[in-house]
Amino acid sequence: YVPEPVLRFGLSSSVDPRDIRKFLPYSYAKKYNVTVELFCCEKDLENALDDFFGGVTDIMTGSSRKYWNIRFKLPSNITYITSSEDLRQYIESYSANELRILIAVLNDEELKNSTVDKLKASAFMNRKRLHLIKRSKLKELYEKRHEEPKGKAAWKAYLLNNSIQIYAKAGGIPWLIKRNLAPRKDSIIIGISFRKLGKGNKERIYYGVAEVRDLAGRWLIFEATLPFYLPVEVEGLYVPYIHMKYLVENVRKRLEMRKMRVENVYIYKSAPVHRDELKALDDSGINYVIVHYILHGFPRRGFLLNEKRIRTIRRGICLIGKNE
């Protein structure tokens, strides 16, 4: 097993993300005022969506003194849409003057990865944040929300998970990693992913995207490469030498403009590491660790039964199978 990281909340630390209710988000002292718009694909789910957002609001702005310091400007009614295309057209119909969060319930078949990516990208460019809810999941949990003990517990967990996501989309920081993820100072973490330009197997033009974070896990910047061609015979995707070299140099220059010195980088990618990438890092003159990770399924966890016979995760350890 491997230890789970200790999370730093606003008032204390814990390995359990659910303790955010007790210890408050890391950025709870900062005020957030957010306009919210609600969209739904089915009128019969109006009560479910109302109860959902009411539950989320209660978690973040409850009557107790321990609240998350966020206030929502609510819509007068719910907008009904028939498809993801309706939602996209609305998103692109205007650019908001202030940050808005659009909460939308869509049919399951509308929530394909490619569709979701396009919707979220469009929302981002129009100063909006998009929070998508799967219709079947909302309906299932809402109908069982009063059933003891599992239905009630599942509904509460669903509301808390969504509250954390919405809070982060509003600009809040739910938690930070208490201990640095890497031992060396003047370091950053770079995660590299790839996107394909064009459709079909004949198109082999790609570009790389780097997400850069500090050692506490806080997001810093995005950096993208110029498009590049990869021969069909390569095994896995990689960033060619010149693009990798420019990628690292541009990241360092942008962070130096923020008065951030970068001497060490920790790079992770799901594709195998290529010799071109290693040569580019060597020639850049920076200290680096590059990790190739393979994700299959989910980490296994230990569970405990509470007094109501509900399984709860035993926090603090994460079991990894030898094939994972």
Descriptors for this entry?
26% strand, 8 helices, alpha/beta
Question: How would you summarize the topology of this molecule?
Answer:
Blueprint: E1 2-3, E2 7-8, E3 13-14, H1 20-23, E4 32-40, H2 46-61, E5 70-73, E6 79-80, H3 84-91, E7 100-106, H4 113-125, E8 128-134, H5 135-143, H6 150-169, E9 176-177, E10 187-197, E11 205-213, E12 219-224, E13 228-229, H7 241-256, E14 264-269, H8 275-284, E15 287-292, E16 303-305, E17 311-313, E18 317-318
Parallel strand pairs: 4-5, 4-6, 4-7, 7-8, 10-14, 14-15
Antiparallel strand pairs: 1-18, 2-3, 2-9, 10-11, 11-12, 11-13, 16-17
Helix pairs in contact: 2-5, 2-6, 3-4, 7-8
Task: Describe this protein's structure.
With 324 residues, this protein is an alpha/beta fold. The strands form five sheets. Strands 10, 11, 12, 13, 14 and 15 form a six-stranded mixed sheet that branches. Strands 4, 5, 6, 7 and 8 form a five-stranded parallel sheet that branches. A three-stranded antiparallel sheet has the order 3-2-9, with no helix packed on it. Helix 2 packs across helix 6 and helix 7 runs parallel beside helix 8. The longest helix is centred in the middle third of the chain and has 20 residues. The termini are close together.
